[in-house]
Design goal:
Helix content of chain A: 40-55%
GO molecular function (chains A, B): DNA-binding transcription factor activity; transcription cis-regulatory region binding
Oligomer: homodimer
Largest sheet of chain A: 6 strands, parallel
Radius of gyration of chain A: 26 Å
Protein name (chains A, B): Catabolite control protein A
Organism (chains A, B): Halalkalibacter oceani
Largest interface: A-B, 54 and 54 residues
Strand order of the largest sheet of chain A: 2-1-3-4-5-11
Pfam families (chains A, B): LacI, Peripla_BP_1
Keywords (chains A, B): DNA-binding, Repressor, Transcription, Transcription regulation
Number of strands of chain A: 12
Distance between the termini of chain A: 72 Å
Chain lengths: ~325, ~325
DNA sequence: CTGTTAGCGCGTTCAA
DNA sequence: TTGAACGCGCTAACAG
């Protein structure tokens, strides 16, 4: 409510002097600084950031575009991102895209209008390219989180999808499994693609053949998995998998639910592993064998990267950081066959 | 990058006409509207929201101050809030206060500076009053989520803490428990206060006495619960509780962990109930008996309330909505003694 | 060390 | 139906 002029008047100085006090710029006599600071306190003055942005072309706003905060992986990404943003003096705007390019596009327009300084982006697939290009066209720096997009050059924070998958599958194979199904998201999502590749590679490395009937499709969101399980049950005993690899936590949860519905006991009737942990759950009941990723660091590092780009302190070349995954063996994968 | 003037020039009209087209205000000849719209498209023009806010005194920004988005309860609050905000054309800024008034205060200053139109607030306790008064002084509408603060008049979205607690305790009592410990957060948090009151009431209603030694203190955040469990184990068999009521999910998780450490099996050695569900967990392994609250609706309704205040469509009187809790009986409370 | 001028991009007001 | 002038609150650039 109070403006810089109100302060100026009260302190008997010019608006410019007040501005300098606020921004610690230029040099100010100690006595006048005191006067100004008192006036500021008395009038509860708070600088208007719209006016500031208008002049400086900076909003100190960052956007976090993820598919769904309620996915425990992204919940932690969000926390990490917010912590770093807060520490660096930025605010974080939360956006849930639900794996939809259309929702993404809408957000991009809003964010552009809102004048965000940078964007953290988990693209919903290759079709997200146009949205990223739009950001680029408007000169907004962005960092890709968790998933990359072909032909887009930018900073990117990833997990090691190959190694994570390899660990999970090798673990199952070492336990004696030879027929392992994969339930995956659409392959235009880089993590789905990479995990599938690694699935194929790991089977081959172990002299196992890839049975296309065991390559099942789903989405990285909460989607009923009953169909897939019914399909599996329809296979002859000889074809039927003895283990399932779910490529993310949501698929895992829904698949487990469907298995229970069909009275299949994990791991007794079906061994089970997946990507990404469900942490609170892990404490209460250490059940799922997972490839765990440091989600918090994804967000934290991602924000650091964008801010460095925003502030021009980033190196010229784009950075790619790949975090290690950790194999956490728990009950769901079962013991030796 | 392009401004309203660039569009004006390109379309051979005045800036004002462009402004009118953008805002659908005034009346415009169809032909000139066409011209302007084409120019907008060609130049990829996006209105500068800093300039707009400066004039209109509206930012279309809302802030969500919660204690920790990684608390599954607040994760869902955040999702509900974001969905409603998005639907109404607002953006949501995420803030984690970690139950600290100091962090709250910092955020409040930043938010005031950022010019948010309204705030959703889960106060960390009675000391949050000063922060709320500050918001009020600056004319920023806010809605309290999950917790109320004495002497603060505003819209508020709550759960039914009395009834939720009553259900949980009555359930334990019906199973035969007479010595029930409560592990609670500081009492200046309204939910902690109310749950404690309901704990006392329910015991009394059932002719049971309240044993102060079974009233244990903790915090609504992840805090090691080993001390409390060691204390419980130090009690004589006669004094020792047969059941524990944890007043939120974080306390629950940590307490279960501590119990496990001490080789105590739930519910065999200790029955257990708590407030708030851990949903993914509930699917994988339906274990905890809880009083579940519709967290998503807390956020959704909260945003609706603030926006109505922001836009002046809210009724004069402040609203208080109290959502029902649902008792979900699972394994942790055990069977009849 | 401090003040004056001008302008950031837009919308309100008043005229035409 | 359209336009010109002004001001929102602030800071950069230039005096002094």
């Amino acid at each position: 409510m109070a403006t810089i002029y109100d302060i100026a008047k009260k302190a008997n100085v010019s608006a410019m002097t007040v501005s300098r006090v606020i921004n610690n710029s230029g040099s100010i006599k100690e006595s006048t600084r005191k006067k100004v600071e008192e006036a500021i306190k008395e009038l509860n003055y708070i600088p208007n950031s719209a006016a500031r942005s208008l002049v400086s072309k900076k909003s100190n706003l960052l956007a976090l575009l993820i598919t769904d905060v309620t996915n425990p992986f992204f919940t932690k990404v969000a926390r990490g991102a917010e912590d770093k943003a807060q520490q660096m003096g930025y605010q974080l705007m939360l956006c849930n895209t639900d794996e939809s390019v259309e929702k993404e596009s809408k957000y991009i327009d809003v964010l552009l209008a809102a004048g965000v300084d940078g964007v953290l982006f988990t693209p919903s697939g290759e079709k997200s390219k146009k949205n990223l290009r739009k950001l680029a066209k408007h000169g907004i720096p962005f960092t890709l989180i968790d998933r990359k997009v072909q032909g887009i050059n930018c900073d990117v924070v990833l997990g090691d999808n190959h190694e994570g998958t390899r660990q999970l599958l090798q673990h199952l194979i070492d336990l004696g499994h030879e027929k392992i199904a994969i339930i995956n998201a659409p392959l235009d999502i880089s993590t789905a693609h990479d995990r599938y590749q690694a699935y194929v590679n790991t089977l081959k490395m172990n002299g196992l053949s890839v049975d296309e009937r065991l390559v099942l499709k789903s989405h990285y969101k909460k989607e009923n998995a009953t169909n897939n399980i019914e399909y599996i049950l329809s296979l002859s005993k000889k074809e039927r998998p003895t283990a399932i690899f779910a490529t993310n936590n949501f698929i895992a949860v829904e698949t487990i639910r469907a298995l229970r519905e069909k009275k299949l006991e994990v791991p007794h009737d079906m061994a089970f592993v997946c990507f990404d942990d469900l942490d609170h759950h892990a404490t209460i009941d250490p059940f799922l064998t997972v490839a765990s990723q440091p989600a918090y660091d994804f967000g934290f590092t991602g924000v650091q990267f964008v801010i460095e780009r925003v502030e021009g302190t980033a190196p010229q070349e784009f950075r790619k950081i790949q975090f290690q995954t950790e194999l956490v063996v728990r009950k769901s994968s079962g013991g030796q066959l």
